Amino acid sequence: MTTQRQTNFALVALLFGFCIQWIELGPLPVSQIALLLSVVFFTLQAPSKLPVGTDTDLFKIYGLFTVALLAGLTRTEDFGAGVSAIARSVVYMTLAYFFYIWLRTIPVEKCVNTLANSVFYVVPAFFVIFWMSSIFAGVDIIKQVLHALSTGNPNWLQYQVFAVVLNNGVLDENGLSSAARHGIMVSLMTVAHLHLFLRRRKSLLGTALCIFVYSFVFFSLSRSAILALLLGYICVFSVKLVTRQLPITRLVFLGGSLFLVVVFSGVLQNSGLLSIFSEKFVSDIANNPRVHEFIQIVDRINTHAVLGWGTGSPLNLFGLNAQYPHNFILYGWHQAGIVGLLISTLFFGFVVATLCKGLSLSMRNARSAPRVSRACLLSAALMCIVVVRLMFAKAGLLAVPEWIALCLSVYCQRAATLEIIGRKAADQSHDVTSISRGGPQAAFGISLSTR
Predict the structure, then answer these.
(1) pTM to 2 decimals?
(2) Range in 255-259, 343-347, 354-358 with the lowest mean pLDDT
(3) Which of 391, 420, 251, 269 is nearest to 330 (CA)?
(4) Which segments of 46-107 does DSSP mark as H helices, in order?
(5) Between the CA of residue 180 and those of 65, 175, 184, 289, 405, what are the distances in Å?
(6) Do the beta carbons of residue 112 and residue 379 sit within 8 Å?
(7) How many whole angstroms separate alpha carbon 347 and alpha carbon 339?
């Protein structure tokens, strides 16, 4: 079967729409329209009923969280802000749920193949749009990047490139949308993860695109995106280490060679990378205002610890511009009291449990079913994005990029789990033919490990 027939271009278009959110394309809310298309696609296919199962538990818990926020409106100090927060929570969760169940209507073989190959369509198209946007804003992207590297000034790259392109050509440091920067980096990183973990064979072009995306993530200076990338790498390293699949000799040789080149070439000092690392990841963390922000939030919560301050109520943090908690659990506690605390903690616990289950399944199937193992590892790596964003995201609510990462993580783990069930059933019955024709495996139409 040809690649064209194995690619769902509607899914490719949706992934592209998620990546170009916030880039200046006029007044259109690109990412929201992309999510809305999944509702249209699902409706057109007219399935007999909505699929249910344990894989939808995360959506149900988040729904309870939204109900808690709705109850918090009775105590709010800013009714308009409270309604806005609840509306965003309901809309994003609903659209994400339809996106997930639409994924489940696509034949698994076709869906997995599309996710694995989407990097070839999405990343080049994104950078074409980004470059066109920079031209309209009067910014020479290449010149600004080279200047930022030569001067070692991270803010030059952060503001000159992202603020101008994302803010309609107006260079205003206070107007820089951090949500836009984080969202774009998370979306691109998700697409790169999909290719590296799901690809059937190595591709030089695909690997180069992924490396370019990860470099773009670093130079965007989005700390939450970089932390999510690092946490995903730790997951991969842990699985390889436990399953004894690390080429230790090659790893030590390459690492040692890279260390010697970096130290003796002076590339860090001359390129400004050391300055970027020092300012954004050493100085900022040591003197990060969010530490003081969390302390003030807890002190404020303690005055209304049981009932909360009400959904939409401002924090009134002294000396800080950011009047919202960069933490999902603290947000729930502040807005909806002890009920919000319990539900937000439950949701966060389920997210972490999904991540850990992905790691466990990946380790157990690393030898017997490598592709299943990689699908489970992908699930864990994508859920790392959600974990980091829940810990540090603005306003504590999941936005479109985090919902997409969550949906794809749950989808990959569900597909891999059903594949494992199918393999076990085949082993027990010694009748692979009957399983492929009419058993649980047929519902997904693919064996991730053998095709």
Answers:
(1) 0.83
(2) 255-259
(3) 391
(4) 57-71, 79-103
(5) 25, 11, 6, 21, 16
(6) no
(7) 12
